[in-house]
Amino acid sequence: MKADVQYSKDMFEKASHEDRNADKIRRPSIKYWPDVWRRLKQNKLAMTGLIIIILMIIMSVVGTHINGFDYKQQDYSLINIHPNSVHWFGTDELGRDLFTRTWYGARYSLIIGLLAAAIDFLIGVLYGGIAGMASRNVDAVMMRIAEVIYSIPYLLVVILLSVVFSTSGAGTSMFVLILAMSLTGWVPMAILVRGQVLQLKESEYSLAAESLGATKGWILRKHIIPNTLGPILVNVTLTIPRAIFAEATLSFLGLGLQPPKSSLGNLANDGLAGLPVGNGYQILIPAIFISLIMFAFNVLGDGLRDALDPRLRK
Amino acid sequence: MRRYLLKRLGMSVVTLWAVITITFILMHSVPGNPFAAESKMPKVVYDNLQAKYGLDKPLAEQYVIYLKNLLKGDFGDSMKSRVETVNDMIRRGFPVSARLGLQALVFAICFGPALGALAALYQNKIPDYLSMVIAIIGISVPSFIMGTVLIQFIARNVEWLPIGGWGTWKHTILPSFAMALMPMATMARLMRSSMLEVLGQDYIKTAKSKGITKAAVILKHAVRNAILPVISILGTTISNLMVGSFVIEKIFGIPGLGMFFTKSISNRDYTLIMGTTIFYAAILIFMLLLVDFAYMLIDPRIKLTKEGR
Question: Are the C-beta atoms of A290 and A244 separated by less than 8 Å?
Answer without folding.
Answer: yes
